[in-house]
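Hello forum,

I keep getting stuck at the same step: I have a sequence, I want structure tokens, and every attempt I make locally crashes halfway through. Rather than fight my setup again tonight, could one of you with a working pipeline run this one for me? It's a single chain of 417 residues.
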Amino acid sequence: MKKIFYLVLVFGLNIVTSQLLAQATKKTAKKTDANEVVAPPKELAPAVQIYFDNNKFEIKKEEAKKLSVLLDRLKSMKEYRLVLTGHTDSTGNDDYNMELSRNRVDEVFDFLSENDIEDDFMEKKYFGRAKPREKNESDVNLKARNRRVEITIIEKPKPIIKPVVKGDTCVRDTTVPMGMGISVTMNKCDYIRMCKSNPGKCVSVRKTSDIMEIIKSGHPLSLKGNEGLIWAGLMEFKFPGDTCLIKPFTATVKVDYEAYKRAKIRLLVKDEKTGKLKSSSDREKKVSLDKSDKKKENIKIGVTVKCPTSKDKEGTIFVAGGAGKGKTCIIKDRTNQIDRMFIVQEGTVDLPLVIIEAEKKENIFTAKYSKLTDAQFIFQLNDGTYSSMLPTSSVKPTKVKTELRKKYKIKTKHLKD
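Reply #2:
Ran it on my machine without issues. Output:
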């Protein structure tokens, strides 16, 4: 009897132990939809630290050398991914530092992209001042260590295999040309439901890159701090009726590469608090070089939209970048007829389109800018009408007609066509 008792006891303990191990495995294992266990990606090398000057996001020469060394190292690696995280020191408010950390990451991202690192190999993250490397910023050296972009090299994430329902055609996409260099890639079932039976009421995308159309659109024309913009264009999305998509679609638009080179062209959205434009926080909305364009004459805009936010099912994406504000131009309105004033640069093969709205205080307009060639004035008068584009050289003749002068006086004769 004792022998039987011990056998039963040992058998019972084995069952309990097995159950405890199974429960522990369930708690620690991370399962995908395909019931596969996926471990977190492993770091392949120590993180590279790229440091920046105070309130700056331009890459310094000594930091560019670090990136060149990194590029050489990556050539020997077959499979990897890069995680770029942006940080600032504790100076300034949260909103400002978040935008500064974003600009720093974008700068490093663009450097690597222009040196043939595929965009899909890199992931961006922005933390502002939330994750300092040095929590005690007691001196300038410690503070400087927090103004950084960390580049972490990780192994290529293992693909997550999701079960596909047999006969389910809704996992497929189709690409539809929309004209004007615009194409839309959307879910096949969405396309059949919304477009194939009634093409006239399908998703539409409209691109605007005309100066007067952009000015008259009623949309914001500047960033926070009244910085003007270098424009690649406005893109407006319209959905049929009250329809939203089952799955997001991606619109691809080719725009002038010169604008991309001259400014950090990105996708902007309206800030409801300030009424100005700000960078989109949606990682699926991005601007990148068109790798298929060997001459690098165009860039590719990938915009992923599921359902526009406004009630009439229309959404607007602003494709633009800051025009800078290192220089100042002061214009005195002697006519007392001008309500709004714009300094513009027409987009050409060699120049991007620039629109800068001047700030008004009584009859004095002040415009901040960085560099303008063959600048022109556009006036919106008190009665709501607009003047024709007026070359600045016709207001104040100058030997160098391509330059914008520091001061102008607008008289009644200048408002006449």
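Residues 169-322 form one domain. If your local run keeps crashing, start a new thread with the error log.
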